[in-house]
Amino acid sequence: MLLPILALIAWTMVMWVWMYATRLPAMQKHNIDPQGAAKPGSLDALPMKVAQVAHNYNHLHEQPTLFYALALAAHVGNWADGVSIYLAWGYVGLRVLHSLVQATVNLVVARFAVFALASLVLMALCAKTILEALGS
């Protein structure tokens, strides 16, 4: 269970690099002083392509926190079997796909479908881990 956790953390760092690789040049182009970014709404002038990447980076700090806690609980409790690990990798793969959709084409219907599927995988992993914990 630790490898999927590490993979999603590594992917989050990839999105962090992507965010700043697009945001900093865009801030320079739009003459936004870095200190000005402290004021809410100051980055609204940035192109949507730049904002999409930043929004996704933020999204990787929302629902995935549940995944980290759940996967660690499954690992520490020794409740993870092969199915759990496949579910964990499935979740990670879907979150990477969600990032790529949001940061590139940002087609909301596709993004929502991937997010919903990832959520269902996370729910399945949660239910399986709870059942394993109750059975041990």
List the helices and strands and how they pair.
Layout (H helix, E strand, L loop, with lengths): L1 H28 L18 H12 L4 H13 L5 H22 L4 H28 L1
Primary descriptors:
5 helices, 136 residues, mainly alpha, Four Helix Bundle (Hemerythrin (Met), subunit A), 76% helix
| N-to-C CA distance | 18 Å
Largest sheet: none
Return Rg in Å.
Answer: 18 Å
Determine the CATH topology: Four Helix Bundle (Hemerythrin (Met), subunit A)
Helical run tally: 5
Order of helices and strands: HHHHH
Question: CATH architecture, please?
Answer: Up-down Bundle
Unreliable runs: none
Averaging pLDDT over every residue, what do you get?
96
Number of strands: 0
Large-scale geometry: elongated
* Helical amount: over 70%
Strand content: under 5%
Q: How does the helix and strand content classify structurally? A: mainly alpha
The total domain count is 1
For the record, the CATH class is: Mainly Alpha
Description:
It is elongated, with a radius of gyration of 18 Å. It has a single domain, classed as Four Helix Bundle (Hemerythrin (Met), subunit A), CATH 1.20.120. The protein contains five helices and no strands. The mean pLDDT is 96. With 136 residues, the chain is an all-alpha fold. Helix 2 packs antiparallel against helix 4 and helix 3 runs parallel beside helix 5.
